[in-house]
Amino acid sequence: MHYFTLIILFIVFNFNGFSQGNTIEFLKSSLNTSKNDTVRCDVLDQLIEIAADGEWQKYNDQMKQLALKNLALKPTGRLLVVYSKYYATALHNQGIIYSEQTNDDKAVEYFNKAIEVSKQSGNKNEMAISLQAIAQIDIRKGNNTKALNQLYECLKIFEETGDEIGVADVHLSIGDICYLQQEYKKAIEHHLKSRELYIKNNYEVAISTINFKIGVDYNAYKDYPKALEYLQKSIDAVENSEIGVNSVAYLNIAQIYIYQNKYDKALTYALQGLSIAEGMQNKVEMNHSHIILSRIFGSQKKYTLAISHGEDALKIGQEINHPAEITMAANQLYLIYKETNQEVKSSKYHEIYIEAKNILDNQESKNALLEQKLKYEFEKKELITKSENEKKLDALNAANEKSNLMKNIWLIVFASILILLAVSAFFLYRNFKQKSIINAQKNNLLKQKLLVSQMNPHFIFNSLNAIQNYIFKQDSLKAGDYLAQFSELIRMILDYSRKDYISVEAEVKLLNTYLELQKLRFESKFDYTITIDKKIDRESISIPPMLAQPFIENAIEHGIFFKKDKGRVDVRLFYENNFLIYEIEDDGVGMAEAMKLKNKLKSSYESLATIITKERMTSLNEQTKGNVEIEILDKKTVSAENSGVKVKFIVPFKVK
C-alpha cells in the first residue's frame, strides 16, 4: 500500500466505469492472460489496492516473488527500476501487515528493507513512503523527536518529487505530534494543510479521518462550533463514500456520537470497530476500541462494564508497550475509579498514567527546537551548496579567460574574484557563527537576523559577471559605476543584517540600489517605481529590513525575465486601516506561465524567497504577537487581460 496514514486500509479503484467487483474480475483475467511480467506486476499492484483483507496479502506475495525472480536476472536500465519498485512496494506492504498486527520490530525490519531496495534503484519517493511508515511507529511509541526527524526528511523528498499526497501525509503526522504536545493551534494548521491537499487530489480514503482529527483539534482548542462542523463532515464523508468502512472510521464516528451524548449510536459503532480490529489482530485499534467502550459505559453509569473495557485496553497497551495507549487507558480507569470514590484504585491508575505520560513529555520537550532546526538546516544546506557550486564555476571561468587579458584588466578580474571570495567567506562565517549561537541559546531572534542576511548567491555571481563583461568590453565607466553600486549594496546588506529594524528611508535607498543594479544587469528590460505614502515619516518609522527584496527578485527573475517586451515593477508602502502595508506588483508573465517556461527550459534553479520570508514572518509573529500574512495573487486569475503577480503583506513597524 502506497501511503501509511493512520487509516490506510482500503483504496477505491475505478476502471472505465466498472464496479469494484467487475474491476477485480477484469484484473484477475488480465493477470491470467498476460505473459509480460511487468504488466503482471502492475496488475498485482492494482489488485493489492482494492482486494479484500485476507486476499490482497496473497497478491502482495505473488508480486514480491515475481519481482525477485526478475531481479535475479540482473536487469539494467528501466527494468531494474521497475522491478525494484515493485519489490520495494511488496516489502513495504509486508511491513504494513506486521504494523497492523503491532509487531513493530518486524514492521520496521521490512520497512528498512524496502528503503534499501528503493535507495539502490534511486527511487526516492518510495524511500520516503517507507521512512514515513517507520515514523508512524515511533509516534505510537512516543519517540516524537526521532519521528520528527524522519518526517521532515520525507517532506523534503515529497516536495522535491511533487508528491502532494505524501506531503499531506507528513502534515497529518506532524499535526498528530502537535496534538500530543497540546499545541492545538499548530495541530490545526498542519491538519488543515493535509486536508487541503487530500481534497485537491481527490484522495477520498483520508477525508473522513482528517475531518475527524481537525474536529478533535478544535474541540481541544475550545472552538466548539468548528469542532462540531468538522466532526459532522467526518460522518458525511463516510456515509457518502463508496470506500469500505474500516475500524478507524467506526471508532471515529463512535467518538463523535459521544461528543453529542448519543451513547446508543456510539456503542453500535464502537462494537463494530472492535470486531474489525479483533479480526485483523490490530492491537492498537483494539486498545482504542476498549477505551471508547469504557467511556461510553462510564457515561451511562455502567461502571462494571466501563472498568472491564478499561482494564482490557490497559492490558493491550502494556503488552505492545505503547506509552500513548497506556496513558489513555490508565487515565480512563483513573477517572472511573475517582468518580466511584474508590480512592486506592484511583491513585494506583493515576500513578501508571503519570509514569507513561512522563515518557511522552520527556520527548516532547525537545520537539519545538527540533522542528525549527530541521527547517533551518534543510534550507541553509541547499543555499550553501548552491553558493559553493557557483563560486567554483566563477573561479573556473576566471581561470580560463584571464590568460587573454591585458595586465591591468587581469588585475581587475583578479580583484573581482577576491571580492567574491571575501563576500562568500564572510557569509559562510556569519552562517556558521549564527548557527552555533542558535543551537547554544535557542534564540528565535537570531534566526530572523540570519534570514535577513541571506543575499541570493546567484545574484552576486551574475552581478560580478556583468562587471567582468564591461571590463572585457573596456567600458570602464559602466564597470566602475556598476562596481560602485554593487559595493554599496553589499555594504548596506552587511550593515542592515545586524539590525532588527531600519528606517523607511534606509530601506528605500537599499531597494533603489538593488533595482538599479538589476536594471543595469538586464540592460533596461524593465522600469520601476518605489512609492511611499506621504503619511509615512521616512526617518521616524522603522521596519524590518529587506522584507520586500525577495519578492522583487522573484518579479524580475521569474516574471519580467520571460516577458518579450519591456516590463515594470512597482513597489508601494502605505497605510491601510492603521496597518503598514507592503505591495510589490509586476506585469510579467505570471506564476503559471513562469512555471511552464521554467519546466520547458528544464531549469534547476528554484527560488526560496517565499519560504525564507514566511520563516521570518513566523518569527515576527512570535515577537510582535501580530498577524503578519503574505497574500500572493496571480493577476491573470482576476482578469484574463492582466498578467503578472501582486504580493501584499502587513509590515511590523516602530516609531522613534
In short:
By secondary structure, this protein is α+β, with helices and mostly antiparallel strands.
Describe the structure.
By secondary structure, the protein is of the alpha+beta class. The chain folds into 4 domains: 162 residues, Tetratricopeptide repeat domain (Serine Threonine Protein Phosphatase 5, Tetratricopeptide repeat, Alpha Horseshoe); 104 residues, Tetratricopeptide repeat domain (Serine Threonine Protein Phosphatase 5, Tetratricopeptide repeat), CATH 1.25.40.10; 132 residues; 144 residues, 2-Layer Sandwich (Heat Shock Protein 90), CATH 3.30.565.10. Helix content is 71%, strand content 7%. It has 26 helices and 8 strands. The chain has a 5-stranded mixed beta sheet, covered by helices on one side. It has a 3-stranded antiparallel beta sheet with strand order 1-3-8. Strand 4 and strand 5 form a beta hairpin. Helix 19 runs antiparallel to helix 20. The termini are far apart.
List the helices and strands and how they pair.
Layout: H1 20-33, H2 37-50, H3 56-71, H4 77-100, H5 104-121, H6 124-141, H7 144-161, H8 164-180, H9 184-200, H10 207-220, H11 224-239, H12 247-259, H13 263-280, H14 283-299, H15 303-320, H16 323-339, H17 343-364, H18 367-401, H19 407-441, H20 444-452, H21 457-472, H22 476-496, E1 502-503, H23 504-521, E2 526-532, E3 541-543, H24 549-560, E4 567-576, E5 579-586, H25 591-600, H26 609-624, E6 630-634, E7 645-651, E8 654-655
Parallel strand pairs: 2-4
Antiparallel strand pairs: 1-3, 3-8, 4-5, 5-7, 6-7
